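Quick start: load a record and inspect it. Here is RidA family protein:
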Amino acid sequence: MAKEIIHSSEAPAPIGPYSQAVKINGMLFVSGQIALDAESGELINENITEETHAVMRNLEAILRRAGSSFEKVVKCSIFVKNMDDFATVNEAYGQYFKQEPPARETVEVSRLPKDVKVEISCIAAV
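Running the structure step on this input writes:
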């Protein structure tokens, strides 16, 4: 029952005392990702669509590093700064889950790290 800390150089480094992901007992718990570019550390936030795709690319890099994929994701949590962006976020997010999408919730929050508009975390099988 040893846990394994997952780190992908293709996703942004944590900006606090947490791991990108933790693998244990065949499950992967991926920390919330925001739209930071892994190489430059710059925010990708020209618009909510671009920001959501950047978040999903970061999640994908971590999933891949852990030996998982979007097909194995069982649960996502989406945090948005403005619920008015729900449809746009949903459209971009949906492109990554074409069949058998995972369970999820979407919650409006007052503020997110670095004042981004969206943050997404997930749980996947490995």
